[in-house]
Amino acid sequence: MNHATEQLITAAAEEALRWRRYIHAHPDLSFQEKPTADYIARELSPFAELEISRPVENSVIAVLHGAHPGPMWALRADIDALPLQEESGETFCSTVPGVMHACGHDAHTAMLMGAAKVLCQLRNRLHGSIKFIFQPAEEVPPGGARELVDMGVVDDVQHIFGLHVFPTSPVGVITLKEGAYVASSDNFDITLRGKGGHGSMPQHCVDPVTIGAEMVGALQQIVARNIDPGTAPVLTIATFQSGDSYNVIPDSARLAGTLRTHNQQVRETVPQLMSRIINGIAAAHGAECDIQWQKGYAVGNNHEVTNAIAREAIGRHFPAGTLQLADKALFGSEDFSSYQEKIPGTFLFIGCGNKEKGATWNVHNPHFRIDEDALAVGIKTHIALVSQLLNDE
């Protein structure tokens, strides 16, 4: 990357700092991001090279057509915040009570805006087009990505790339995973119906509490004894609700939780095993039950073609040792997988941790901070990822 381009990135990073801090101070929850989208569109409007559209009011799509023919590639950022009361101590803390950018989406947005500014200035060297996708509602299934995919936003896109800040890595480190990098995420609700009565006469009842407790233990046997350890999922019962009295056995109980896996076959098999187990236990005790699933995001799989592009680009434009290859996938989920089900794509993690700056807390924490030096790294990463479409520098 030549000196002139590096200077453009440095200048864009200074503006990205302003963008990031404004968005951080004015967060919007998932599916309510119109004010954030309005701000993005307004700040990008001076860049006459961009064709800006709003397929849904809480999103922004900006397209840069290069001076030369070529394919369309896409870069994506998520823009929504979380329902948390901020306790980071930043001078630009959230001004919205109970809402905070605690997952770095403000930084993702500012990085992509900065990349758009730089690439507009490199348009004469661009062979092809870049689509900048500012996407709502990553945090809440079914997610904003699915809506945009269903609307055809990536129908003309050959490859797509996304970034996420990573507070457990220092600034200057970029992490890439081959294949699966995040898990699918599906939630379930189990309703258990027994027969209530007085706590002194359990023989006349069908106790949903003891039956539910048996289910909790039995369901963990799925992971321990029914699934190949090499593809073991996470099956968590996070809610067990029943009754509200000291001496009354309730009529019903509710169990709820989440299933996460990096394997699509496991994702399909575990619900079948769960239904068999809970129905068997309920029947054995004279109770009834049913289970309802809320399908979330698919397994996130990085494509070998776009991964090769990313490895080459980062190796060429960053110092040796910048790129680290992860050996394990995360059990978090990410709706970038919706794009990857449609077209080849790669998702990378940008280090943003710095103990001296208090950037040590993980995402989804009210104390979450980033080292803002990561903004320049993110902008440069975006430019590097699409550098194959730029003629030789």
From TrEMBL:
The keyword Plastid does not apply. Keywords: Hydrolase, Manganese, Metal-binding. InterPro entries: Amidohydrolase (IPR017439), Bact_exopeptidase_dim_dom (IPR036264), Peptidase_M20 (IPR002933), Peptidase_M20_dimer (IPR011650). GO terms for molecular function: hydrolase activity; metal ion binding. Its cofactor is Mn(2+). Residues 187-280 form the Peptidase M20 dimerisation domain. Mn(2+) binds at residues 103, 105, 139, 164, 364. NCBIfam families: amidohydrolases. Belongs to the peptidase M20 family. This is Amidohydrolase. It comes from Kluyvera genomosp. 2. The lineage of its organism: Bacteria, Pseudomonadati, Pseudomonadota, Gammaproteobacteria, Enterobacterales.
